[in-house]
Known about the structure:
The complex is a heterodimer of chains A (860) and B (614). Chain A has 30 helices and 24 strands. By secondary structure, chain A is of the alpha+beta class. Chain A folds into six domains: 120 residues, no CATH class; 88 residues, Immunoglobulin-like (Sandwich), CATH 2.60.40; 107 residues, no CATH class; 84 residues, Sandwich (Immunoglobulin-like); 144 residues, no CATH class; 151 residues, no CATH class. Chain A is globular. The N terminus of chain A is likely disordered. Chain B contains four helices and 41 strands.
Amino acid sequence: MNAFRRDNRHRLATRPTLRLTLLALVLAAGQPGHGEKVDSARAPGSPAAGAAPKLLSLRLHPRAVTLRGKDASQQFLLTGTYSDAVERDLSRQGRFSLSDPRTARVDRQALVVALAGGEARLTAEFGGLSAESTIRVQASTGTRAPSFAVDLEGIFTRQGCNDSHCHGSVKGRGGFKLSSQAGNPREDHRWIVRGGTFQIYSQESAGPETPRIRPEKPKESLLLLKPTLQVPHAGGRRLEPDGPDYRALLEWIGRGAPYGNGVPEIVRLEVMPRQIVLEPELSQQLVVTAWLSDGSREDFTRRVRYQPTANQVVEVDENGLIRALEPGEVTVLAQAPRRATRISLGVVSSILTEFPRETPRNFIDEEVRRKLRRLSILPSEHSSDQEFLRRVCLDLTGTLPPPTRVREFLDSRDPGKRDRLITTLLNSPEFIDYWTFRLADLFRVSHEQGGRDKVKIYWEWIRDAIARNKPFDQVARERMAGQGYDGPTRHLWGADEIRLPQDVMTEQARVFLGRRLDCAQCHDHPFDSWTQDQFWGLTGFFKNLTYFWTTMAAVDDPIGHEEFGADGRLLHPRTREEVEAVYPDGRALPVEERTDPRSRLADWFTSSEEFLFEEAVVNRFWSYFFGRGIVDPVDDFRLTNPPSHPELLRKLARYFRSSGYDLRGLIRLIVQSNTYQRSGRPNQANRGDGVNYSRALPRSLDAEILLDMICQITGIPEVFEGKDERDYGGRQPSGTRAMNIVHPDLHPSRFLDIYGRPSRTAVPERKGGASLAQALHMLAGPAYTDKLSREGGRIDRLLRSSATDREIVEEFYLAALSRFPTPEEARQLVGMVGTRPSRKQALEDLLWGVIASREFAYNH
Amino acid sequence: MILFNPRMRILAVVAVLLPVTSEGAEPQALSIAPVGGQRGARLEVTLRGRSLQEAYAVRFDREGVTATVERVEDLVPEGEIDPSEESPQAQKLTLRLRIDPSSGTGRYRLRVVSPRGVSGPLAFLVHDLPSVAEGSSSSVQASTTQTIDVPSAINGVVSRPGERDLYAVEADEGQHLRFELISNPSGTSMGGRAGYRGGFDSVLTLYLPLGSWFEEGRLHRLAYDDKSKANPRPNPLIEARIRQRGMYLLEVGSFYNLGGAEFTYQLRVTPNGPAAAERFPTTANGSESDPWQERSFSRPIRPDHIRRILARTVEPGDGVGAASAENGRTPHEESNGPGSTAYSIVREQEPNDNSAPTAVANIPFLVEGSIDQPGDLDRLVSFRVQSGHKLSFEIETPEATLPDFNPRWAVMDKSGKVVLSNVYRRVVRQALSYSKTIEPKTIHTFLRGGTYTLRVRDTTQRNGASDFRYRLLVRPQIPHAGELKVQEDRLNLVPGEAGKLTVTTGQEEGFAGQILLQVEGLPPGVQALPGTDYRPEKPPNLDDGPKGRYMPQQGATSVMIVAAEDAPATRMPRILRISARPVVSGKMGALLPVGRVQLMVLEGKRRQTAAKSP
């Protein structure tokens, strides 16, 4: 008996006791995994006590390196491969030696520093094995001239000066502004060399310009006095007076603080190793390499800033050494000016050396399994037929299977019955209803936003897209670039005018790119690489969006938006220059393509080499089936919020594009996978896992779906009254399901509000948490009380029939939970009904207990 | 005859009518059911309204349908008609209708006549389709739903909020069917309740009761149509080719789930195709002549268009004579009329979206073309003007029209610069908000002589189809009387009372003369006198833009209809014919129809009327 079943049994005592019990349980219900019974079976492959793995080989990274100039350095990484198939870092344990000590020196941390021109062989030894690398020192070429954009900004980045909480914040701090993550080095150079106070809406300085450096007396520069606390500094001590960063700044100021034109820029950062699994207390050395625009490479291991997403899991020092603290999963971000890379890292309590074999259904299973294996998380077993049936029906149609279908499915011995059911559901009218509801939510079909006359064609457009399985890139294209008076253009409207182009753009980016760009409207994005210029460049694609009052037709017209003022131009708030359409990669929209800019942007969305659109879409749809996205939240793709399964996301995105953006195909792929069809029952290894899809996590149902289910179970439809019949419309026809209401905001519902029906004035975010109001509603709300006792309902029908108590209990379970009651449940419940003076009252209590249970209210 | 001219002494009559009491309220006809009948039929119909007691006659505006009043009953207010305190008692009038077998099909407007006066009109549809009355109950079960034959016309009503009416139709594989819903065909005032273009927010849905894995009786939606505010087509329409033989279900309802006695409809189920359309025409024939329209995309530009404009002035405008002299021919032209009122026709020839030289047409000319596909841009024709030349541009969309087809034309000079278009842009509300509209008529005075090119496209780049047809007439301006309307539909006067008729007059293309109004058909003891009204001044808009280019000058005058104390009562309404004549420099033009008004002089107690001279 699982936790849900226990819930039911508890609730079927007397009503008052039962309801108090319920209250406590509901309040605790928001935690996934609450009350779940753990499969105590020992995980296969657990390491046997005392069996030490044997070192099989050593590997030294990089295999060859060229150091340019004296004092140039390179961090090395020594990795050992062991007999348990695990790779372990030995960089701090190995013994290193150089064949020519005059060329370079090496320390115990595997750091090699150039001394003089020449070539040497680096040898690493450990456990009786050895590995080698070649080092070439080109001292004659001299040291690369420091660049402000790379080297000086690198210091500000590494020390956190340009962090969004410090001088990299919107207005800067203490009168000193640096661009976030060194995104705008030219301006940073100006604020340092010329001084002045930054303004958000102007490029001009707000106050007198006092330089932050004194080239004639470099040590008296504010840029050095402040971070060394020689004068008060709210940010505390950031530089040691004689440290290498201090010396670099001092030297740069002494040379007149040049910007350093023509020096190479960082093209990309690369880190080794990219994925790491550690046991607590173990450590791992990183090696970060910068690829420069002149084709050369430099070691940046000690020149980047390391930021783990969870400080309790690991700590990282400035030399790139990671130390594991406690089990968990974390991403470490390595930041250099305008470039960053990340390392995915898991800390496991023990490493599994063997993993159960399972035939993958598709690449989803391969990718999920790969990570589970790497993190030594044992997945749960395959779901039972009853688990699968209820889950897939709710996920694909928002509808519970009727008892006859449950019996039919559970009785069937057809090995292909799950696939057949998936096909049936995908082709059902209920699928169209449900996914129209889903997209109407995402696309904001709202009376408040567009007025009732505009809303209905918008909703119909969505429904038609679902019914015809319109390729989703076309759906996105029509919504982004729609013109005229038709469905997809209606969301462009506010109360009675076309919404501002920046608002329209940010919504498209959120819905179709999964990115929240709003911050970048006023300043460079504090947590991502999006700049204010990129924001307005994207907005430029929407700047000619306007409408003709005659027909409410949306068009792109040089006349421009109706609110831009007399000259009809959209101006960048800071530069006051006219906004032009510019792709995020900096390419301006060619003049000859400016007649239809939104279409060109839609082209870019759906053809970018980064697969931004595809990743955002598949991630969002993935979340509908697993309760969380591979990137989560699903509309918060950013550098500092990486995907849990990057390769899976990559493959899904490519699959989606290659399938012709086939939404049903994507859904089929997902629900056919073993990953989707896992049981919700945890084992010892995956009990704490909430992100790696090692088991099915219970998901609270959307308010509309839950209400429809209650109506389905009780047999009493909900009556949706109109907000105001004269102005907004009247009562919905009898039998209308909550998910099929076109204008949710015109039909107030206490139940739906309590259970989290969102407003659609912004892109809705549904939060499935439990609340006290829900608990009280379960006790006294009409959905949980009146519907049970109403004439013509399921109970009334069963009472009039000749069904026995056992048959009624069975029907309740089949209808609501898609399973038969266990013998114990049946015995207790039938007994309870038999002892109550009123059979009707007893059955009402029984059904109440069923629909008030977490097993009913969750998809699991 | 009354000539309105500032130099004339005007008798101003200010009539203050006290609130109408229920006792003295004029009859109101609110709905009729059924809303139509087959030719040759005799049937009983129910007309609902207010103040219908003592109604003794029903008057139709056309020959072919007659009605006798059978009885009048009071309605229980609740649930029938909005029982607000000020509302007079609601009644139900039972009529026996006889439709002559030889009568024409179409709309017949009827009015109720009683001692309280004549009501506003309701329309009754006469058709050739077999009539079916809505059944007493509708069910979602195909087996129990009311079955209808093809062809037939079902006259029904969505009588309650949230009601859905279902009908079953048996159809064969390959059959082409047309399902059309005419909502509120009688033209009832919906009182602002989801009323769209005279109808209500009707929804028509076609289902196939296939069932589903979840639900045996689940309906599969095959087609759906509703009537949106901006949709020029007033009625939901589904045209279907049946793929499999079986029972199909039609559902009628209100999109916003409204309902009531006035939510009447006629559902027409006919075979689809041209022959069927001819046999069962949807558009009813009007009983009154179409009013003159100048500011509509759907008004036809006929071959005699210029002649008809000239008929609305006293003498030809300055430019028309010049146009006559220039009226040469090009290979694409053809003449549709003799003399100076003819215009040549230039037909679009694709490809024409390049920069190749275009043919030069002489003014006046009409270009015909279509935006065949999304993004189509038609560079059509060039024309020459002299400095100071005044031209008028009128565009018609004979098939697809707004909001689907938004024709946008532009006149470009030799450098390609747009000097004129039919986009009217002005400031509304506050200085930072613009309103932009596509206009069907534009006038312009060319300050520079030279050759100009005309270009047409849809405002969007997404829309285009073979029925995106346009006809654009370029002609010299002719100052003339434009659209003329009388706002009132009827007057019920007690002897000694005065009633007001408001006539609005459009003055087109710089028409600077006067417009003389004439009222004919006055019964004995009733006369028409000029009046003035107090019209509160509106604050000026911040920027009206080039309003004169896109809008006519508008005037409004009041005509007081005064019944003398001893004016004899009229048992049946009289029809007042309001006409107008343009007057320029004392010369009068032809008589132009303005409208018709039903007038009754009532017997009974006189209502208080105040009148004074200035």
